[in-house]
Each structure stands twice: as structure tokens, then as C-alpha cells.
Design brief:
Length: 506
């Protein structure tokens, strides 16, 4: 390790970030697997000696080794090397460390020489705009959430960042809870020809916005609801205030500080048993209708009395019975994943009377429920759809009947040979379901893997229900699949031999 004048640098921390990935992708566009070491319990770290040299022993041959070099007086550097006697192709557009922008790199063989530049340094001070006093213990974020730096102001409101690659960064001073001030978002540029940059930020005073979130039926406050204030500015806007967020207390009350001007207050989940939109749903999503309120925050005047009424959404109360009409206990009733409102699967369990309850789903939406016994030999399914509901809580009573179901069987072959361990997925319905908040999602129904003879058997089929079968096999270099095989459900079904095809490149 040397500086710009060719002098050795002592005490450089040499981190092995990963082994085995040069940014290569297989034919399906998936990254080739790697072993990530940096920031894990498997760290390989050494330091340069007085001659600026280092050695990392015990590395595998013919594998790309991603290295990160750190020193307080120099900018962060990264490189890729290979323990090999063979020439190596360049690594294409990879990010070795979240603080280093992705780019193509030469893969070095043998002794490695890295030149380190003096570290760019960003210093700054945060104050309160109306008093000029220091803002202590304020969190500063520099860069994006997936590749950034963090700092906290000291008692004098000062902060600093070091060892940053030259670039233009978004800088966010986060709002401090318990104060009457909002945060601030701006940008700063770190350049090679200017090693030191300074920025001063004065936090403007906001005004209090308060209210409550209550249950539609009981009028009791709901705890744990996230309350967000949106100014209408985009995430990339520069020199704009950042409002505070809040969480309702045990009585459902909230209070936050927002900047002067027009904005929107909205409530978000998840909160068990209530129908609430996600915190990260797009501000223009129709899902937010009824969960937000436009306000005007004026100087020297608080905004209070906001009231959000939240219901339990679609409440499904039901019973599971067998062919004879007798209730069935210990049955899993699953709300299929990927449906509108919630992304994750939700499971209820029938009691001794065969009864179950599911709630918290959007009222004006379609839900798919699937009931299966422990051995998955019988099944019941039902689509529930409610439109134009007026209340935020709508209760529907259903009866699900368990009936014996068939199974899909078949053999998977690749290059005319049986495939061992191939993944077979059965999706509910003939096409993906659309969620207006998030897009299209397939509803996975069941999955299994092929045996040594390439055979598979997958159950839970009900007469009259369409399914889509998908088969995937991935080796070290390629992904093969057979997609969108529409299965007509009913009794046991033997599918003729399925020959896989290479997945299209991305």
C-alpha cells in the first residue's frame, strides 16, 4: 500500500470482503454465489507493516477475492485479486462495499499494489434556526440507505465524515423527537480536488400536529399505529424540511412536528387485527384513501383534533366441516399470500368446534382461503369478495367443506436425463393476482422437489380449481425451467414427462 508519492503506508486495514464473486451472472441473470465475509463473524482482516506490505493466507485458488482497504488518513479503496496462475477477465460493475459505488474492475494476479489518496473530509454543524444554539445528539445520514454513512452531532452540534469516495451525496439531518424542530434534507459534493468540505445546517422550527386513532366499533384508542406526515416533496428533493413521525400511545394519541405549509397526515400499520395500509405504500396508491387527511400547518398555531377511525377490515368467521357435516378440529385455514392488502400468508387454526377467525384484510378486496388437514389429504378452498362496503369493519360468515383431493405426479428431465432435486411449485389460479398497491404477485399454493428418479408428487388439488405448475432447476451456471403449465384439477393426475429448457437471459 502506497500513497500518491509512492511511499509505503503503515497500518492500513485489509478486509477480505467476499470470495468467489466477480459480478458474474448466470444465463438467467442471477449473481453467481459468493461467500460474504466483511461485517460477519467470518472476518479476515490484517494490517500493513512498516513497509506497507500485507499477506492474507489460506485463500482458495482460482477464486476472486474482493478486498477493502481502510485508513483514517486516506480515502476508502477496494480491489479484486485472484489466487491463480491464469489470466482473469474484468469484474463487471460490482459493488464490493456499500460505501463504494459499483464499477468494473481489473482482477489482479500475484502481488497487488494499491495507491491510496488522502481522505476527503466533510465537516459541519447543526443549529436551531431561531436561536442559533447547537443541536446536539442529532443523527446525520449521508448517502442512500443502501450505501451510506452515519454520524451524530456532538455537544457543539458538530459532525464529520471521513474516508468517503468522491461523489455527490444526499445529506439528511433527521428530526429529533421531543423538540419543536423538523429535520432537513440537502446535498453535498465531495471532489478529488477539494479534500475538505464544510456545511452548516439550521433546523427550522415547525408546529405541532396532534390527534388520535380509534377503533370504529368501540371508539377506543389504538396503540402502535404509525403516523406519517407527507409534505408532497419527492425523496430526491433538495433543501426541504423533514417532518417528524409518531407512533400512537396506549390511548391511541399521537403528536408530531411538521413544517409550515400544506401537507398530508396518514396512518399506517401493521397493527394486529386492524386493516391499515403499509408504511411504505406509494403516496398515490388508492389503498391510502380513507387513511389520510390534508392539513395546513400555520406558524404560531398548533394543528390538533385530527381523528382517524380504523376498523378490523374484512373479518372472516367460519367453520370447517367434512363431507358428513361434522366440524373438523385442528385444521389450518390459510389466507393465501400475495393477495391485496397483505403480502404474507396468514394462518388460523380451527378449535374443537371447527371454528376459526381471520381479520385485518382490506374490505373491498378479494381473498382466497385454503383449509387443509394435517396430512393434507383433504382440502377446502373459498374465494371471498366484497365490493362497495361502507363500514371499515365487515363480518362475513362462511362454511368450508373438506373433501378428498387429488395429487399431481410426473417426472422432470433435463437433456433426456432425470433431474434430482428440481423445484416444483404449484400456483393458485391460472394467472398472478394483482395488488393495486404493489403490482402482480403469484399465489404459491404448494411446493416439492423431485427425487433421484426425477419424479415428484404434489397434492392439494380440488376439482374445478385451475392451477399453474412451474418447474425450476439451477446449477452453478444456468437456470432451467418449464413455466405456466396449466393443470386441470380433479383426481390424481399424471403429467407426461416434462423436459426443461434454458431460462431466457436477462
Amino acid at each position: 500500500m502506497i500513497d500518491a508519492n509512492g511511499k509505503p503506508i503503515t497500518g492500513v486495514a485489509v478486509n477480505v470482503a467476499s470470495i468467489g464473486n466477480r459480478g458474474d451472472r448466470d444465463t438467467a441473470g442471477f449473481p453467481i454465489p459468493m461467500l460474504v465475509l466483511m461485517q460477519s463473524r467470518l472476518n479476515l482482516v490484517t494490517k500493513t507493516d512498516q513497509a506497507g506490505k500485507f499477506t492474507v493466507a489460506g485463500l482458495p485458488r482460482d477464486q476472486a477475492i474482493a478486498l477493502v482497504f481502510e485508513h483514517d488518513d486516506y480515502a476508502l479503496e477496494a480491489a479484486i485479486a485472484a489466487v491463480s496462475d491464469r489470466p482473469q477477465r474484468d469484474a463487471q460493475g460490482i459493488s464490493i462495499d456499500r460505501r463504494v459505488a459499483p464499477r468494473s474492475r481489473t482482477v489482479s494476479i500475484g502481488d497487488l499494489t494499491v495507491t491510496m489518496r488522502p481522505t476527503p473530509r466533510l465537516t459541519g454543524r447543526v443549529t436551531f434556526a431561531d436561536t442559533g444554539s447547537a443541536a446536539a445528539d442529532v443523527k446525520i445520514l449521508l448517502g442512500e440507505y443502501y450505501r451510506g454513512f452515519q454520524a451524530v452531532t456532538d455537544k457543539d452540534g458538530k459532525f464529520s465524515f471521513r474516508s468517503m469516495p468522491d461523489s455527490e451525496y444526499k445529506l439528511r439531518v433527521l428530526p429529533v423527537d421531543g423538540t419543536s424542530y423538523v429535520g432537513w434534507q440537502t446535498s453535498v459534493k465531495i471532489a478529488d480536488d477539494k479534500l475538505n468540505a464544510n456545511i452548516n445546517i439550521a433546523l427550522p422550527k415547525g408546529q405541532t400536529v396532534s390527534g388520535e386513532v380509534v377503533d370504529e366499533e368501540t371508539n377506543v384508542g389504538i396503540a402502535g399505529v404509525t403516523v406519517v406526515y407527507a409534505t408532497g416533496e419527492t425523496d430526491t428533493a433538495i433543501d426541504v424540511p423533514l417532518p417528524q413521525e409518531a407512533t400512537t400511545d396506549a390511548k391511541g394519541r399521537f403528536q408530531l412536528v411538521a413544517p409550515i405549509g400544506n401537507g398530508t397526515v396518514r396512518v399506517a400499520g401493521p397493527v394486529a387485527h386492524y386493516d391499515l395500509p403499509s408504511r411504505y405504500v406509494s403516496e398515490t396508491a388508492p389503498r391510502l384513501d380513507g387513511f389520510r387527511e390534508e392539513v395546513t400547518v400555520a406558524a404560531k398555531r398548533t394543528t390538533s383534533g385530527l381523528r382517524f377511525v380504523v376498523g378490523r377490515g374484512l373479518v372472516v368467521e367460519g367453520v370447517v366441516i367434512d363431507d358428513s357435516g361434522a366440524p373438523v378440529a385442528d385444521v389450518d385455514v390459510v389466507r393465501a399470500p400475495g393477495m391485496e392488502g397483505r403480502m404474507k400468508r396468514v394462518v388460523a387454526h380451527t378449535d374443537a368446534r371447527g371454528r376459526f377467525m381471520l381479520d385485518g384484510f382490506p374490505v373491498n378486496s378479494e381473498q382466497i382461503l385454503i383449509a387443509t388437514d394435517a396430512g393434507r389429504k383433504t382440502l377446502g378452498s373459498m374465494r371471498i369478495s366484497m365490493q362497495n362496503a361502507v363500514r371499515r369493519t365487515e363480518v362475513v360468515e362462511i362454511e368450508m367443506i373438506l373433501r378428498p383431493v387429488g395429487r399431481v405426479k410426473g417426472q422432470i428431465r433435463l437433456h433426456e436425463k432425470p433431474v434430482d432435486g428440481g423445484l416444483v411449485i404449484l400456483n393458485f389460479g391460472g394467472k398472478p393476482v394483482k395488488d393495486p398497491d404493489h403490482g402482480h404477485y403469484s399465489v404459491q399454493y404448494a411446493r416439492t422437489r423431485t427425487d433421484a428418479a426425477g419424479r415428484f408428487e404434489i397434492g392439494m388439488l380440488e376439482a374445478g380449481t385451475p392451477f399453474t405448475l412451474r418447474v425450476m432447476v439451477k446449477n452453478a451456471k444456468e437456470l432451467f425451467l418449464k413455466d405456466a403449465i396449466v393443470v386441470e384439477s380433479g383426481e390424481d393426475l399424471e403429467i407426461p414427462e416434462i423436459e426443461l429448457e434454458p431460462a431466457p437471459g436477462k
